[in-house]
Specification:
With about 140 residues, the protein is mainly alpha-helical. It has five helices and two strands; from the N terminus they run E-E-H-H-H-H-H. It folds into two domains: about 1-40; about 45-140, no CATH class.
């Protein structure tokens, strides 16, 4: 077995992998913090009640509460959701809002997730529109 800087190759390789993962984590964390700061500066961070009042003209209270509870889980304590936030601007994995949230909403609302239609063409993917989309299945 060879050595690198006096360390066994397997150990040096392990340290290299750990270093790369730490750098990757630090860059990701920095980018997330930067995105949160920019978003906070670009719009108000509403309280729960303000969020509900802003979104409720477009969705039922139950849907508004679901959206608040679901997004705040990912954003707190650094940020609160705003109905006009684009989901792609939030530090939330697309798999969560793309697959898990519809299933969770369907289960909570008493229908099967297969009732949720395709995303309407031309709709920006905002929290407000997300709620409107979920309700398309809830009311059909």
């Amino acid at each position: 077995m060879g050595e690198f800087l006096g360390l066994p190759n397997w150990f040096a390789e392990t340290l290299f992998v750990i270093a790369v993962l730490l750098v990757w984590y630090a860059v990701g964390r920095r980018n997330t913090r930067k995105a949160i700061t920019q978003l906070k500066q670009s719009r108000p961070s509403p309280t729960r009640e303000k969020f509900l009042s802003l979104i409720q003209p477009d969705v039922r209270r139950e849907t508004a509460e679901f959206l608040w509870d679901t997004t705040i889980f990912y954003l707190a304590p650094d940020l609160t959701p705003h109905p006009d936030d684009k989901l792609s601007d939030l530090p939330i994995d697309e798999d969560d809002w793309g697959m898990d949230w519809p299933r969770d909403f369907a289960n909570k609302s008493g229908f099967h997730e297969s009732n949720i239609p395709d995303w309407p063409k031309g709709w920006p993917v905002t929290i407000r529109n997300y709620g409107r989309w979920l309700e398309l299945a809830a009311i059909s």
